[in-house]
Design a protein that fits this description.
It is built from 15 helices and 15 strands.
Length: 485
């Protein structure tokens, strides 16, 4: 492995002279040191880039439950260990694994014969190698499909469109996402033999945006207990636009498509969560959990989604350690199998639900600049919320009255009803890249990546040195004496 910077375990252990000296400094000096480290990260941090450059170069795509994801976990563990994290581990869990297969083709047979670019949606059934040919029925959105009567699509292929546009906060994903999330199930319920969607994205490259779709478990019949999928795929946005133009020009003639998708199920395989820690001076205080996900879809090395996020959180932990051993332990969680159903986040919560978390944060929205700070304790711990917001204002981050809900990989914080912070990244171009072959290292702006690290360093450093309850500002119940204070 090639690493441009290293930070050895000797720098992080409690016995190090650097940390021993730091333990005796006053709180104000600790804050000053943290600010200096965060400011330096804005200009010089290389930890995050080192991580994302390394994992995308040496591992590449990391689809959940596959050998490639296992290599990604092994690589990440070696990186954490080399950079001085303690208690590095792979926490395995079992999952049902789907892979895309080799053949992904869509072809308009009539009235305007031509090929189109398509990829299968996660969980899709196979058409078989010979494909299926059927009339396509256009729906402008999921609501129009939901309004169609049962049986109206018997023997046909449903095509679902949407009108997603770029936004800074990524809010259009929630508007357009149901085309992928539930569209195939709705089409199946109305008799469709397959579903094709306009990719849920905002670019106009001929790259389909992949991602999972969901089929319900039947309530009766021989298939009770397991969902029965149908073939489902996503067209690139230019191909979807072309298909919609065909409907305008067809003058009522049916549009016929041949669709060939050959995904398959591998059965039960192993995924896992990678964890590591910067151990705090007081193990009795609930840790700061900072999370991302290690897996990606098969069609890209996952630089934005979510290699950068893992680099950002790991860099923040290392930078906080530079300013002195923190009071609380900082635990990094590189969750597995996020893309295919949050399996890693769920498994981590189930395994650790009885271990209180002080606060949870996640980075999983690319690598462009953080522009807004949110927490779910603005009213219950106003002092800490405002102190955190003020600390990152110099990096161009605005305070917010929005209530943080947390990312996909910190289910444990939601399950415990705990403190959560969202450091909102600029998503204006995120859905140009999301789940496409364009999610590559060259799309990361190193300047904006370092701004993320600086903000995370500042916030995590304050949280990791907070002696009182992060959520309420009151005493931490049954907390032992704080060492070094």
């Amino acid at each position: 492995m090639k690493h441009t910077l290293t930070f050895t375990a000797a720098c992080l252990c409690a016995a190090s002279p650097l940390l021993a000296e730091t333990h005796t400094e006053s709180r104000s000096n600790e804050a000053s040191t943290l600010e200096a480290v965060a400011d330096d990260a804005l200009e010089n941090d290389r930890f995050a880039w080192d991580f994302v450059e390394g994992i995308t170069t040496e591992v590449g795509p990391r689809q959940a439950g596959t050998e490639a994801e296992a290599r990604g976990r092994k690589w990440a563990m070696a990186w954490l260990t080399q950079h001085g994290f303690d208690n590095v581990a792979d926490e395995p869990f079992e999952m049902e694994t789907w892979v895309p297969g080799e053949t992904h083709r869509a072809e308009i047979v009539s009235p305007f014969p031509q090929p189109m670019v398509i990829q299968p949606l996660g969980g899709s059934a196979s058409t078989g190698p010979d494909g299926i040919t059927a009339e396509v029925v256009l729906f402008e959105n999921v609501a129009a499909l939901a309004a169609a009567p049962e049986g109206s699509l018997d023997g046909k292929i449903a095509y679902i469109s949407h009108s997603m546009t770029p936004t800074q906060d990524g809010s259009q994903y929630g508007f357009a996402g149901p085309a992928r999330w539930v569209g195939a199930q709705l089409a199946k319920e109305r008799g469709a033999i397959a579903t094709v969607i306009k990719s849920v994205g905002t670019d106009y490259h001929r790259n389909p945006h992949v991602g999972g779709t969901t089929f319900r478990t039947p309530e009766g019949g021989s298939d009770v207990g397991r969902p029965v999928p149908t073939p489902a795929g996503a067209l690139s946005l230019p191909d979807a636009a072309n298909l919609e133009r065909m409907f305008e020009r067809a003058d009522g003639r049916p549009i016929t498509m041949k669709l060939t998708l050959t995904p398959r199920d591998l059965g039960t395989t192993t995924s896992g969560n990678v964890v590591g820690e910067i151990v705090g001076r007081n193990p009795g205080l609930p840790p700061v959990l900072i999370a991302c996900h290690i897996d990606s879809w098969w069609n890209a090395p996952g630089a934005f989604d979510d290699g950068a996020g893992c680099g950002i959180v790991a860099a923040a932990a290392l930078n906080v350690a530079k300013s002195g051993q923190p009071l609380r332990t900082i635990r990094v969680l590189f969750a597995g199998a996020e893309e295919v159903g949050l399996f890693g986040s769920t498994a981590y919560s189930e395994a650790h639900i009885d271990e209180p978390i002080g606060v949870g944060l996640e980075s999983d929205f690319g690598a462009d600049r953080i522009w807004r700070f949110e927490s779910n304790f603005r009213e219950t711990n106003e002092d800490l919320h405002n102190r955190l917001a003020a600390s990152v204002a110099r990096f161009g981050v605005a305070n917010s009255t929005n209530v943080a809900s947390g990312g996909a990989d910190i289910n444990i914080s939601r399950d415990q009803g705990g403190a959560i912070i969202d450091l909102q990244q600029d998503g204006t171009r995120y859905f140009d890249l999301h789940h496409t072959p364009d999610d590559t290292l060259d799309k990361i702006d190193p300047v904006q990546l370092r701004q993320n690290v600086a903000v995370w360093t500042q916030v995590v450093g304050i949280l990791a040195n907070e002696s009182r309850s992060i959520q309420t500002g009151g005493p931490v119940p049954s907390a032992p004496a704080i060492m070094g204070e």
